[in-house]
């Protein structure tokens, strides 16, 4: 790590950690959705919406701190990209839950639970990694594992698409379910974007 003579604004670390912890909350709500009947889903969607708003607040706080800080712990562009990618994860998870409710999906196709399990694991790893931004220690395994999980998510997504197009579902149902599984795949991609940004930061700071 480079030796610095100038003080740096350290509140970013706490804000990134808070944002990642909120994503864990969102992933737990996704897991809860799997076991919920249609009557309970609207309430879960409301809690997810509140979590998404909390994520927006966390992101805006980071941007505000970024705009008001003369010295930052790492590159401004990387801070912006990390905050934006964390926000994207929450947006995609909230969108998936909202679509399940709006489309009145009775039963999600087999395989969606695997998508959500991957997201939940990625959320845990991301939350565990954020405090390590202070020292840049013990982060390599994090971004390697998140990249592996994203590859796993890709495989699950392809199998889900094959299931949707096997003739079991009518055309309208296919459109609804495909949009949901596509958004969950976008959430997995966003986790990888976070991991890649962390890797970029770590390389620059090494």
TrEMBL record:
<dbReference type="InterPro" id="IPR018445">
    <property type="entry name" value="Put_Phosphate_transp_reg"/>
</dbReference>
<dbReference type="InterPro" id="IPR052912">
    <property type="entry name" value="UPF0111_domain"/>
</dbReference>
<dbReference type="Pfam" id="PF01865">
    <property type="entry name" value="PhoU_div"/>
</dbReference>
<dbReference type="InterPro" id="IPR038078">
    <property type="entry name" value="PhoU-like_sf"/>
</dbReference>
<protein>
    <submittedName>
        <fullName>Phosphate transport regulator</fullName>
    </submittedName>
</protein>
<comment type="similarity">
    <text>Belongs to the UPF0111 family.</text>
</comment>
